[in-house]
Design goal:
The chain has 79 residues and is mainly α. It has 4 helices and no strands. The longest helix is centred in the N-terminal third of the chain and has 19 residues.
């Protein structure tokens, strides 16, 4: 059940990011989402767990997938 919740939440946030990219810079969106996520981690985790999370994020940096460039499919441009 929890994995389904995470998948649904991921889908919701990813859809929002793609939608926002139609009017805003993809890099600005990523910066804001990253700042929010790091603040959530910093708030919810102990200092040592926060440091471990940062290390894990760094270690998994090559496992990140790209989004399909929706703006190109729809004839738009990225700002």
């Amino acid at each position: 059940m929890e994995e389904e919740d995470i998948d649904q939440l991921y889908s919701t946030i990813a859809d929002l990011a793609v939608s926002l990219s139609m009017e805003h810079s993809a890099l600005k969106i990523a910066a804001v989402l990253n700042a929010v996520s790091m603040s959530i981690y910093k708030t919810a985790l102990s200092e040592s767990d926060y440091d471990k999370m940062c290390e894990t994020i760094f270690d998994l940096r090559h496992d990140v997938h790209t989004f399909n460039p929706v703006w190109q499919e729809q004839g738009g441009t990225v700002h």
